[in-house]
Amino acid sequence: MRSRFALFAIAMALLAAPNMRAQSVAQTPPMGWNSWNFFAVRVTDKDIRAAADQLVATGMRDAGYVYVNIDDSWEAERDSNGVLHTNSKFPDMKALADYVHSKGLKIGIYSGPGTKTCGKYAASLGHEEQDAEMYAGWGFDYLKYDLCSFIPDVMQKEAPHDKAAQMRLMIAAYDKMGKALKAATAKTGRPIVFSLCQYGWDSPWEWAPALGGNLWRTTGDIEARWQSMYDIVSQNEGLASYAGPGHWNDPDMLEVGNGKLSMAENRTHFTWWAILAAPLLAGNDLPNMKPEVKAILTNKDVIAIDQDPLGKQGHRAYADGEVEVWTRDLQGGDKAIAIVNVGSDRNATHPFHLNLAKAGLHGSQAGKDLWTGKQVTLSDGMPIELASHDVLLVRVGHAK
Question: What confidence tens digit (pLDDT) does each residue in 262-284 have?
């Protein structure tokens, strides 16, 4: 695997290239809904239309969730001209895109650089320009590009024992689609968000922006389990300097409302993603969403942390036993402070006593508890007791 210096040199060379795609989208982390977590390969045109309707009806659109993203399983086969056709589940992609746009929303699609997608449907290898122009012509606003079969089809086949060469092949494949999207945008006038889904391999945060990437996965797939969420958050620590307007670290889609996550875990999940300036792509069952789940996903104060225009990703300030303190600097001198009980025992804190200096603060701080809406004052040494996997999230104005 190449050194970070070598990766940086490649990224800078690409950045200077005249075909670099302008970062005109994703000035804040993209927000929306993706079909995979709930529907997987069962998703249909009807489901996407219903999701668009629900984003409007639930108020999620007005809260900022504007992308309705189709994940895998829309593809059929290519004809003799190489044109990729949709399968019977998606009879008319242009009509579907028009419907989603009529709701004041945007629409996303899915492919990959190999011959097949993760679900074994046709992908884009050798047809990158053709596919990108087709997506733009249909009216799509977002592409999730998933590595999957490119690993055996190209990386392992062409460089079976050379990891560095495999990584170069992967980067070149994403660069090719980045250029294709740029060309499609130039031809149609439709900017397309480019989401790299390659599981954090070879530190994409170091080279993806130069390829026109707007977001890139930093880890493997998330699951609706506390340990999965915590592991992903921990792996994102230290990446703050790579995020900013137009280019974001992506810890994967939201599992809020899925699986057996408790309401405390759902709150903490959403809080962490906001602190990390992460894309907020819900993946829950929208028609059957519980009111308490909707309240989490549409909490305007927490969303404002995620969407803060300064675009500065937060970090873990310190940990004390089974409690972690995360902070994020916000526009205008405000600061978000998230205190999380990561332990499984409510009494493990005994209680926890806040150390303001370790959180980068000096003296008592007046702020707002963003999950209760109440005004609070954080003071040095104050005792804080939290239930297992729960969080206290405070926004401090003009933090000292």
Answer: 999 999 999 999 999 999 999 99
**Contact indicator for 28, 309 with CB cutoff of 8 Å:** yes
Residue with tokens 């972690």: 324
Cβ–Cβ < 8 Å for 113, 145: yes
Return phi, psi of residue 355, to 5°: -110, 100
Q: Which residue in the list 53, 153, 221, 320 is annotated as catalytic? A: 221
User: Per the residue annotation, which of 146, 202, 329, 334 is the catalytic one?
Assistant: 146
Alpha-helix residue ranges (DSSP H) falling in 161-225: 163-188
CA 63 centroid distance within chain: 17
What the block records as the tokens of 252 is 């994967």
| φ/ψ of residue 132, rounded to 5 | -60, -40
Nearest CA to 1 out of 247, 173, 200, 152 is that of 200
Strands 383-384 and 352-353: antiparallel
DSSP 81-142: T-PEEE-TT-S-HHHHHHHHHHTT-EEEEEE-SSSB-TTS-B--TT-HHHHHHHHHHHT--E
Distance of CA 113 to the CA centre of its chain: 19
Q: pTM of the full predicted structure? A: 0.93
Enumerate the β-bridge partners of residue 367. Answer: 376, 396
**Whether pLDDT at 93 is above 60:** yes
**3-state SS assignment for residue 330:** coil
Q: Which helix (H) or strand (E) holds 228?
A: helix 226-236
Q: What is the dihedral of CA 126, 127, 128, 129, to 10 degrees?
A: 120
How far apart CA 136 and CA 142 sit, in angstroms, is: 9
Residue 315 token pair? 């970090």
What DSSP element (H or E) covers 261?
A: none
pLDDT at residue number 400: 77
The pair of three-digit structure tokens given for residue 234, joined into one six-digit string = 């921990």
Q: What is the mean pLDDT of residues 376-399?
A: 94
- 50: Cβ–Cβ under 8 A, 6 or more apart, which residues? 286, 287
Using an 8 Å Cβ cutoff, are 386 and 340 in contact? yes
* Residue 146 a catalytic site member: yes
Q: How far is CA 5 from the centre of its chain?
A: 26
